[in-house]
Design a protein that fits this description.
Elements (H helix, E strand, L loop, with lengths): L11 E6 L4 H10 L7 E5 L9 H14 L4 E4 L13 H14 L4 E5 L4 H14 L2 E8 L6 H14 L3 E6 L4 H18 L4 E5 L5 H5 L1 H4 L3 E5 L9 E2 H10 L4
Parallel strand pairs: 1-2, 1-8, 2-3, 3-4, 4-5, 5-6, 6-7, 8-9
Helix pairs in contact: 1-2, 3-4, 5-6
């Protein structure tokens, strides 16, 4: 996918784009020219014109005119930590629009939305050669290891190309729970790339130790963060080099 291969070598670095206007987002994209990263995530829930398809299309077209790396299209719902809410129908319409646009490489779909709609969109994405990241976010707690593993396995069964879970630790032990679940996936359950992270200050180590435990991607901030505990691209790149297994 535009020369980015997941599950090979060091975790890939994804930079969020979180501008509220087209001008802000394009400025963010241009600022990435000299940043060492692998792909960008357009957090379209931050975009103030997200409910106007023609403006979303114009934004995607302009991004593609100046940006050549893979683009992950994400509308994070309010209940999973996003900036705004859409009706379920509008949520799926937006993601269907992105898949059909030919202007994105990956879309993020949330596990706890509508399974039937998710399966339908995955099938359409496969036809369009758009990869699907199936995700689950818990900004309040860290579920037990068995539940984390079960969610990730469920995502595989539904047909995700990449599985993702992000949880909030309340203790050091919670971080170990997330890492143990990730390692179990790596050792015996995962049959495709997996992204995991423990958020906040406690969880920073989980964003940096993916190569060891089995998370194929980490999110890092070029400027503005999109989740608690994100580290700068420069620092992440340096630490991934230090922790490399080869």
């Amino acid at each position: 996918m535009k020369d980015v291969v997941f599950n090979e070598g060091r975790p890939k670095i994804c930079v969020p784009l979180v501008g509220k206007t087209k001008q802000e987002i394009i400025k963010e994209v241009k600022r990435l020219e000299n940043v060492a990263f692998d792909l960008a995530e357009l957090r379209i829930d931050f975009f103030e014109d997200v409910e106007h398809p023609e403006r979303v299309a114009a934004l995607l077209a302009e991004i593609n005119s100046i940006y050549k790396k893979p683009l992950l299209f994400t509308f994070r719902t309010k209940k999973e930590g996003g900036e705004r809410e859409l009706s379920l129908d509008r949520y799926f319409e937006l993601n269907r629009f992105a898949i059909r646009s030919g202007l994105v490489d990956l879309v993020d779909l949330e596990l706890f939305s509508s399974e039937a709609e998710v399966i339908e969109l995955i099938a359409e994405a496969n036809v369009k050669n758009v990869k699907v990241v199936l995700s689950s976010h818990d900004f309040f707690r860290t579920p037990p290891k068995e539940e984390i593993v079960a969610r990730l396995v469920k995502m595989q069964q539904i047909g995700a190309d990449i599985t993702k879970i992000a949880v909030m630790p309340q203790s050091e032990e919670d971080v170990l729970t997330l890492l143990a679940a990730t390692l179990e996936m790596k050792k015996s359950k995962a049959d495709r790339p997996c992204i995991t992270m423990s958020m906040g200050k406690y969880g920073v180590i989980s964003r940096l130790a993916g190569e060891l435990f089995g998370s194929c991607l980490t999110f890092a901030a070029a400027k503005d963060v999109s989740a608690p505990g994100q580290v700068s691209v420069r620092d992440v790149r340096s630490i991934l080099e230090i922790m490399a297994l080869d």
